[in-house]
Amino acid sequence: MDRVFVVGVGMTKIGRFYEKHAKELFAEALWKAIDDAGGVKPQAIVVGNMTSSVLMQQDSLGALVADYAGFRGVPAFKVEAACGSGGVALYTGFALVKSGVADVVAVGGVEKLTEANTETVTRALAQAADADYEVFYGVTFTGLNAMISRLYMNTFNYTDEDLSLWPLKMHEYGSYNPYAQLPRKTTLEEILNSPLIADPIRLFHAAPIGDGAAVVLLVRGEEKAREVGKITGRDTLVELSTVSVATDSVDMSTRRDLLTMESTVLASRSALAKAGLTIKDIDYVELHDAFHITAYASLEDLGFAPKGMAVKLFKEGKFQKGDKPEVNFSGGLKARGHPVGATGVYQAAEAVMQLRGDFPGFKASSPETALIHNIGGVSTIAAVAVFKRVK
Amino acid sequence: MDRVFVVGVGMTKIGRFYEKHAKELFAEALWKAIDDAGGVKPQAIVVGNMTSSVLMQQDSLGALVADYAGFRGVPAFKVEAACGSGGVALYTGFALVKSGVADVVAVGGVEKLTEANTETVTRALAQAADADYEVFYGVTFTGLNAMISRLYMNTFNYTDEDLSLWPLKMHEYGSYNPYAQLPRKTTLEEILNSPLIADPIRLFHAAPIGDGAAVVLLVRGEEKAREVGKITGRDTLVELSTVSVATDSVDMSTRRDLLTMESTVLASRSALAKAGLTIKDIDYVELHDAFHITAYASLEDLGFAPKGMAVKLFKEGKFQKGDKPEVNFSGGLKARGHPVGATGVYQAAEAVMQLRGDFPGFKASSPETALIHNIGGVSTIAAVAVFKRVK
Questions:
Q1: pLDDT tens for residues B126-165?
Q2: Whole-structure pTM value
Q3: Which residues of chain B are within 8 Å of residue A78 when distances are taken between CB atoms?
Q4: Integer CA distances (angstroms), B25 to B207, B211, B228, in order
Q5: Are B177 and B51 in a shared domain?
Q6: Same domain assignment for residues B194 and B327
Q7: Which residues in chain A are contacts of B115 at CB distance < 8 A?
Q8: Would the CB atoms of B249 and A63 count as touching at under 8 Å?
Q9: Within this chain, do residues B150 and B94 fall inside the same structural domain, yes or no?
Q10: Is A59's CB within 8 Å of B1's CB?
Q11: Which of residues B221, B237, B253 is at a domain's end?
């Protein structure tokens, strides 16, 4: 079976773009990716998006963005898996290319959140939770994560200060990332004094609300990838080895263990096995840190830390510059930002650039393998992809 | 590259199911498909759905239905392309199986429309049109189709009576279909006296609002399909030869010709070419007749009738029992019903049963090839799939 390669990436800066429609953000990212790939154009477009139906009253988003970007006619559609939509778009695009259904596929994600007021966007994001068994009773998405945070802190004896080290570091990384929504450093004091959203989660423990779009261009076969490399002058190829997706319940009340994201465990194991790697082989990671707790739980459930140990290890300097793996040098969802349906595609673009060595922010130590982890809900769905540098 | 076969199909009756959640409808269709396939279980689930975000305030629909049906853990996600969501789910599932990403994939569609009042559901369905350039100005989805109907009638000199022959015939076919929402015959008089929705479209010219779910189970390779055949006792295999998708603009004002659905033309040509067939080779068709005009335009744009001739040919008895192709013996969207995101999967299930010879309604004349045609918006997106009977 032919292998799949990423030949181009494109991102918009994440921010508040009142003046831009989602289709404009998407077109910007798509054409950046096409330019990055020396002009290779997509034969199909997969769009990860969560909220267009509710916040823009717009379905048919795939066709809309394709037409606006100049690709009327091309197969184009939306995939939705809440905040994991981008990762699932990558899974879909990987299959389209690998199967030969299309030779070149643009996998994109786009989200436009900032035009809605806080209540509206909070309700829209809560649709990742169970409408009947959770949201109906008034819980927000931050509320669900707050309960898990408290349980984690109580179970493993961590303090607010301990958990706050993650966002502190993310803001440092993000300060180097020209695409980041919050490209500035912060302090532990600022984090701990920021407003409580849902105890114990404070404003600076959570990803911001932002608009943005990202695209990666996939092609089938090493020959085609080398051909593109000749045009772009890149010797280094990046292979998308595999994408695995797994699910869990939507409502958390029926889970076996609130402190284990089983879909993340499943997707990580599956992706590593299909890529012929073990967790120790991974050099670089972009993981889904929508809240501080999500970062630590992800490190544990992906297999990088024993349960309950991620905070301690991070405090000791693990997962940082020079370690294996290095994690979230983009600034993560916390500082790079989290335009929900686009986040998984941002992660893919960042992983590819770190492998190529041309990420314009905080640079990884010449990684050869990278893993990305994107979830929807409290890991109701998890997508894990593995990338390899190929000389 | 391995071929893709359909080894099981399942459908719910279409109707008003106030007492059932979408996940219950989906699980019913999925388990019928599993039973039909002798117990083969999916390794991935693709869900075509349009309105869950707006009418159910529920995202993460893929994981929700998978978990409820007993498949927690399995990759499961939603694809959205308005009323063409089911066809696009089939496209996605086809790629997942063909690529080897999953060996057995359940492609399903589900829609729950009847709990909302008329205004709410009309607004939800209008999201298939352009929010900024069409819906903002007050047009409904029926309104857009009414304008095309009028243009078609004026251009080709047809009357209300002429166009009403389609729904008349569909109700006759539908009266034999146990899954149909409106399994009863009608009369030309009843059609022409039914209330005007948007001149010239009357109630009986349009598909009803309904709830329903359908699933088809895809497997990779003839060997696996034969294996299932041994269990189910079926000698006849049904191959899903190909699925093609194409797009057009969302807003109709920028189209070259309002009477040509270019995405349907593109998808039909592509699907036939990939299947190694011409339009003359197709024995059986299920096409997307959301309104009377849509049926005739589809016959023309798929390639079965010259432009402007479909009504005349249908009046002369073409596309009916004993002709080639035979069309919409399910009763079509008009009488079988149109649970929007599920419609494309109903069509697939019906085509498969007609090829196997076990469709429980109005039977085709032993077809060997079948084509289905599912669109979103006014063919903003079109999915065309070709199935073959394999001895």
A1: 999 999 999 999 999 999 999 999 999 999 999 999 999 9
A2: 0.98
A3: 79-81
A4: 20, 8, 25
A5: no
A6: yes
A7: none
A8: yes
A9: no
A10: no
A11: B237
